[in-house]
Design a protein that fits this description.
- By secondary structure, the chain is mainly beta.
- The termini are far apart.
């Protein structure tokens, strides 16, 4: 599989939509995740990330401009013990509740499908990271329409045991801008993970399209201790 430069992937795509990155630092000591949101409408762009316990949530930057909270107000990140859940919608809660009840990540998401926003039918992308006892693994999921046909939901789960140092995976909702927006295709893209949290955060933010980027979350988790550091960047400040 081709190793990609995440800066190049982001810089060459004006609208990947919402994206999740999961991987491991080059020195092997940290589990890495990032989540970003973009927007084309006033409603989508009127958002910020705020911390919520060990996770984050979206909220309206200007409540007076919030026309429809469905699909844009949710908790993208929640933590359940040693597991960190990252998704692009309210399926974060579905995964959290399922894992809490002893279900697998894949089974927990069986009750959900792509977003009801035809004609785009935006995929639901999700990830869960498990950092425990000095070990680390993660899984990623995408629930998407069958080439734009909402009568069928295609479900894909990708699992990564003992991720390699300096490598990550990147999954996003759209292949590019368009009307309707073309859904992500294939396996999560293999990317390099370089630098500390400040450097990595700045690189991601600088390469997201200036007009469309809205918010970015990055977290580095110490695999030995489970302690973490978080960075949040909001365009609306």
């Amino acid at each position: 599989m081709i190793m990609n430069d995440i800066a190049q992937l982001l810089g060459s795509n004006s609208y990947p939509g919402r994206g999740i990155i999961v991987g491991r630092t080059a020195d092997g000591s940290k589990a890495v995740t990032a989540y970003f949101i973009m927007g084309r409408s006033v409603n989508s762009r009127n958002r910020v990330f705020v911390e919520d316990g060990e996770g984050i949530r979206t909220q309206a930057f200007d409540p007076s401009k919030l026309s429809d909270p469905s699909l844009i107000i949710y908790a993208p990140v929640r933590v359940l013990g040693t597991q960190t859940i990252v998704t692009n919608g309210d399926q974060t809660d579905t995964a959290y509740d399922g894992l809490k009840d002893g279900k697998t990540f894949e089974v927990a998401l069986r009750s959900r499908e792509f977003e009801p926003d035809g004609p785009n039918f935006t995929p639901r992308i999700s990830a869960v990271m498990n950092v425990a006892d000095g070990k680390y693994d993660y899984s990623m999921s995408i629930l998407k329409s069958n080439n734009g046909d909402p009568d069928c939901c295609n479900r894909y789960t990708f699992s990564y045991d003992n991720p390699k140092n300096g490598e990550g995976r990147f999954i996003h909702t759209y292949m590019s801008d368009g009307d309707p927006l073309p859904s992500f295709e294939g396996e999560p893209e293999l990317i390099t993970i370089e630098g500390g949290i400040d450097e990595f955060t700045d690189m991601l933010w600088d390469n997201l399209n200036e007009d469309n980027k809205v918010s970015l979350f990055v977290r580095y988790i110490d695999i030995a201790t489970g302690e973490y550091e978080t960075k949040i960047v909001n365009k609306n400040v």
